[in-house]
Structures are given as C-alpha cells and as structure tokens.
Amino acid sequence: MIVRIMGEGQVRLADSHLTELNKLDDELLREMENGDGPGFRRTLQALLAKVRELGDPLPDDSLEPSELILPSPDATLEEVRELLSDDGLIPG
C-alpha cells in the first residue's frame, strides 16, 4: 500500500501493519470526538512516526497513486476532521 503524508512524501507500507496503525487511528478518533487537543496532537505524531518507521520511503520524484492520505504533522484538529471517513483516517 502506498501512503502519502501530506507535505512530506510517500512510503510503501505492508498491509500487515494496518492493524497496528488502526489502534492509533481509533485513539485519534476518540480524542477528536472528545475535543482533546493535546491528546490529538500526541496521537497524530505517534501515528505518523509509526508510518515512517514501518514504511519504506519512495523517491521524491516518484508519483505513485496513494491508497491512503494522512494529514501533515502540523494539521489542526479541524483539518483532520475534514479528512475523516466513518472508519477514521485508516480504513478497516
């Protein structure tokens, strides 16, 4: 799966990592629903860090279609709300 972090680039991520990432995504969704700004910021950073850790960066000149688009590290709670589906940022 190709994942784009807005403002950073793309990584190739094995589908087997989605379960682990979904746990952080669920936590992020709860924090957003509760209006927990500091928790939201902390969990968003943790989610993006995990994607960077588990994924293999694609070259900057590579323009693969992204199957998943994640917000930039400095995205606001409101900006992330606009990207959400019923499942959160990560489907499943």
Descriptive report:
A four-stranded mixed sheet has the order 3-2-1-4, with helices on one face. The chain has 92 residues and is an alpha+beta fold. The chain is globular, with a radius of gyration of 13 Å. It has helices at 18-33, 37-54, 77-83, and strands at residues 2-5, 9-12, 56-57, 68-70.
Brief rundown of the structure:
InterPro entries: PspA-assoc_dom. Residues 1-92 form the PspA-associated domain. The chain is α+β, with helices and mostly antiparallel strands and 92 residues long.
Helix content: 40-55%
Shape: globular
Helix-strand sequence = EEHHEEH
Total strands: 4
Judged by helices, strands and strand pairing, the structural class is alpha+beta
Q: What value does the Rg take, in angstroms?
A: 13 Å
Which stretches of 5+ consecutive residues score pLDDT under 50? none
- The rounded distance between the terminal residues' Cα atoms is 14 Å
Strand content: 5-15%
Protein name: PspA-associated domain-containing protein
Domain PspA-associated: 1-92
